[in-house]
Design goal:
Elements lengths: L2 E10 L2 E10 L10 E7 L6 E4 L1 H9 L3 E2 L1 H10 L1 H12 L7 E3 L5 E3 L3 H13 L1
Parallel strand pairs: 1-5
Antiparallel strand pairs: 1-2, 2-3, 3-4, 6-7
Length: about 120
């Protein structure tokens, strides 16, 4: 089951607003959803975007993916940057060049090439 965070339309004719929901990717746009994580009102000036970042982080940690529309709105809102920053320190530290210690704090690890270069420079001197 591929889970996505995407928008579902609500509101009346010509007065839409959208909810950010977690649902199976095979379900139709306004079908049943697993969790409601935020909302977007394009009519309000400025646009009103409300997101429960803890829920989004929880679902992203479980393997959910963002739809293109949700990704762009979260990027404009600044939420995506905060979530990616939190993911690097929590689970994605290995991909960012660090490691997570037993206490849960990030430890910086130097790449092997840097260690080799340092060793060759010392022996060449």
């Amino acid at each position: 089951m591929a889970v996505r965070i995407r928008m579902t339309r609500a509101g009346s004719k010509r007065k839409p607003f959208y909810r950010f929901v977690v649902m199976d990717s095979s379900v139709q746009r306004d079908g049943g959803f697993l969790d409601w994580v935020g909302q977007y009102n394009p009519i309000a000036k400025p646009h009103d975007i409300k997101v429960d970042e803890a829920k989004v982080a929880k679902w992203l940690g479980r393997g959910a993916t963002l739809s293109d529309g949700v990704r762009s709105l979260l990027k404009k809102n600044g939420t995506l940057k905060r979530l990616e920053g939190g993911a690097e320190t929590a689970g994605g530290a290995e991909a960012a060049g660090g490691a997570v210690s037993a206490e849960g704090t990030e430890v910086q690890v130097q790449p092997d090439e840097a260690r080799i270069e340092e060793g060759t420079q010392d022996s060449a001197s």
